[in-house]
Design goal:
This protein is of the alpha/beta class. It is built from 4 helices and 7 strands; from the N terminus they run ββαββαβββαα. The chain has helices at 23-27, 52-58, 122-136, 147-170, and strands spanning 2-3, 16-19, 31-34, 47-51, 69-72, 75-83, 99-102. Strands 1, 2, 3, 4, 5, 6 and 7 form a 7-stranded mixed sheet that branches.
């Protein structure tokens, strides 16, 4: 990862998410400067949106990093937007720098998809996803979960571990 005036000794691992223009709506975050991805612009596959923490790591204000060049995973691109910081890891982790790239620009994605739907349409949505998945992956079953349930389970486990550690520290 490289940008203008980056300290060559600054070795940092920066997570990324491949996404599209619906990212803000799905993850309930918002742009604080610049613009969102636009599927109509072929150049956006070589564009990045970063979070506030990434702007800070780069040494720029959210406004000043718009138009800056960024080399990320062998892709040379331009920063077009900055989103508010949000938790993309468990809440006890500090907010980390994050780079968002338009789907297809970097690696084409990880194979994980986040779909926002209303609770009353879950059965219909799951059935549609299963049949669509089967068309492209014959003989393979769709593995899916619900973000709310996964997060609840994660925080329940973490809360339990916290209580266990507290108990041992008292003993």
């Amino acid at each position: 990862t490289d940008w203008r005036d980056k300290d060559p000794d600054n070795l940092i691992v920066i997570p990324d998410i491949s996404t599209d223009a619906s990212f803000e709506k799905v993850f309930n975050t918002s742009l604080i400067s610049g613009r969102n991805f636009n599927a109509e612009l072929a150049s956006d596959t070589a564009s990045f949106i970063i979070n506030e923490e990434m702007a800070h790591v780069m040494g720029f204000s959210p406004e000043d990093c718009i138009g800056e060049k960024l080399r990320f995973h062998q892709l040379n691109g331009t920063i077009i937007g900055v989103v508010k910081n949000f938790n993309f890891k468990p809440l006890h982790y500090a907010i980390e720098p994050l780079v968002l790239n338009q789907w297809g620009g970097l690696r084409g994605g990880s194979g994980y998809y986040v779909i926002k739907t209303s609770t009353n349409s879950y059965p219909k949505t799951i059935e549609y996803l299963k049949s669509s998945y089967e068309k492209f992956n014959p003989g393979q079953e769709l593995d899916y979960g619900f973000l709310e349930k996964d997060l609840d389970l994660l925080y329940t486990k973490e809360n339990m571990m916290s209580k266990i550690f507290n108990l041992f520290s008292v003993l």
